[in-house]
Amino acid sequence: MCELLLIFAARAQHIEQVIKPALANGEWVLSDRFTDATYAYQGEGRQLGGDKVELLEQFVQGDLKPDLTIILDVPVELSAERVRGRGELDRFEVEQAAFFQRVRDAYHQRAASDADRYRLIDASQTLSEVQADLQAVLDNVPLFQD
């Protein structure tokens, strides 16, 4: 619970100091993690439940949500293999496979809930294939077209 509250405290500050001013200036905001990650990691991975995440999301963000969320999806076993190859593990990376399967399932559920906002990309492919898929997503989202 402490982890969840700290995440939303940091998010509240980031929204007020970075995201809202950028949006007010007509700038694009790109984030490598946002509330979908909190639903996945804390809500499902840590099994705190989506209701707590949703309550804090509403309190901290109101109606502020990403226009597009790209999920780089990879099977749990392959992900673990890649992480082990990077060196020392952090406090999330030491979690068991069941944790990461819950996280992955949560992302899949969120993607299935709103096909207009989410795009799943198979990140088990080569880097160049993932990059091509990312480019195709961006090329086909009306939001990014002139």
What does this structure look like?
- With 146 residues, the protein is mainly alpha-helical.
- It has a single domain (2-144), classed as P-loop containing nucleotide triphosphate hydrolases (Rossmann fold), CATH 3.40.50.
- 58% of the residues lie in helices and 7% in strands.
- The protein has six helices and two strands.
- The chain has a two-stranded parallel sheet with strand order 1-2.
- The chain starts with a helix and ends in a 7-residue tail after the last helix.
- 14% of the residues are buried.
- The model has no long low-confidence stretch (mean pLDDT 92).
Count of distinct structural domains:
1
Instruction: Provide the β-strand percentage band.
Output: 5-15%
Separation of the first and last Cα atoms: 43 Å
Helicity level: 55-70%
CATH-scheme architecture: 3-Layer(aba) Sandwich
Instruction: State the order of secondary-structure elements, H for helix, E for strand.
Output: HHHEHHEH
The top level CATH class name: Alpha Beta
